[in-house]
């Protein structure tokens, strides 16, 4: 949802606003938690934390809800002074008071993990075994591999280009340089380079162009939204991402309900069609029997077959105890 450089910009802009604030309350929302903060002059006093996605300060309080994880957070953080830090190479914000640390993981499948100051896990919003790391009580907290590697000089950048195995420039920027699709597309467009071009085919001037734009991004001079526009207020941008995501989720849910209702209606229509077909068939059988009831008067099989044959109607009769079972071709029913 957000990349490391956007998170770093958010941290740079908002850390001092949050640091030394007092946690007045904590409650959970659908996909995360909210810290209600107090600090003189702090306008947006609700810190929204959505693990695996986003973090931002907001001035709107949602309906308070609690769960077991929130109750534990309240016990450890309510009425304490907090400070925040950012990991130097991954999308992780650390919220600290004098005794505990809350790791806010904002990469995909990220969690909320509370540890002591030795990084021993005390509890988390979910417990998982990721293979490369375990998030369980009493385990040592470790972050996943694959951290952002920032390149700070042109020579190292040239080496990175020469050693990549990516087949085009966009993939090289998105994956090898951890920029993601949005910034990769932006760079090649601004540098006027064909995005499907192989990194091996880039000349010296093109590599320098790419590096200069890349350098502006990693130094937080250029940050863009999904339309390629320069982001002004990063916190407002994060708020809008969250609100749009919630609205899209609401619309998706409504559309899913709509499709579910449509399926039910279609099933009911098909059921009614079958019922109507059966009713129509029974009506025709009733009409047929009414017209030819005189044939069945004595329930004599031979007489019944003889009389129908004289009418050019082929039937099949068999006796089942006291019942006569008569099979009549549908075409004769259609004619009556």
UniProtKB/TrEMBL annotation:
One GO BP annotation of this record: rescue of stalled ribosome
GO MF term list: ribosomal large subunit binding; tRNA binding
Regions crossing the membrane: none
Gene3D superfamilies registered for this protein in UniProt: 1.10.8.50, ibrinogen binding protein from staphylococcus aureus domain
Entry annotated with the keyword Amino-acid biosynthesis: no
Stretches of the chain forming a coiled coil according to its record: 244-285
Gene Ontology CC, one term: RQC complex
Keywords: Coiled coil
Name of this protein: NFACT family protein
UniProt source species: Nanobsidianus stetteri
């Amino acid at each position: 949802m957000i990349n490391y450089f956007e998170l770093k910009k958010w941290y740079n802009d908002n850390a001092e606003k949050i640091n030394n604030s007092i946690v007045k309350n904590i409650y959970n929302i659908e996909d995360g938690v909210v810290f209600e903060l107090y600090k003189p002059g702090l306008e947006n006093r609700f810190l929204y934390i959505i693990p695996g996605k986003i973090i931002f300060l907001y001035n709107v309080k949602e309906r308070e809800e609690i769960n077991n994880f929130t109750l534990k957070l309240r016990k450890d953080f309510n009425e304490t002074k907090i400070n925040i830090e950012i990991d130097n190479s991954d999308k992780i914000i650390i919220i600290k008071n004098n005794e505990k640390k809350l790791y806010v993981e904002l990469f995909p499948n990220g969690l909320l993990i509370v540890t002591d100051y030795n990084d021993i896990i005390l509890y988390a919003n979910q417990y998982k075994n990721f293979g490369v790391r375990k998030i369980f009580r009493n385990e040592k907290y470790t972050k996943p591999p694959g951290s952002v590697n920032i390149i700070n000089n042109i020579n190292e950048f040239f080496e990175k280009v020469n050693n990549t195995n990516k087949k085009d420039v966009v993939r090289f920027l998105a994956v090898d340089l951890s920029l993601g699709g949005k910034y990769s597309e932006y760079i090649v467009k601004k540098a006027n380079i064909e995005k499907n071009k192989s990194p091996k085919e880039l000349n010296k001037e093109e590599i320098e162009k790419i590096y200069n734009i890349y350098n502006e991004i990693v130094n937080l001079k250029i940050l863009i939204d999904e339309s390629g526009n320069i982001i002004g207020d990063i916190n407002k941008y994060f708020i809008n991402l969250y609100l749009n995501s919630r609205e899209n989720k609401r619309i998706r849910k409504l559309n899913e309900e709509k499709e579910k209702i449509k399926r039910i209606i279609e099933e009911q229509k098909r059921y009614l069609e079958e019922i109507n077909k059966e009713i129509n068939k029974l009506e025709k059988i009733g009409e047929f029997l009414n017209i030819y009831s005189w044939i069945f008067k004595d329930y004599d099989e031979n007489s019944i077959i003889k009389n129908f044959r004289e009418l050019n109607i082929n039937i099949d009769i068999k006796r089942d105890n006291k019942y006569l079972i008569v099979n009549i071709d549908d075409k004769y029913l259609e004619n009556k």
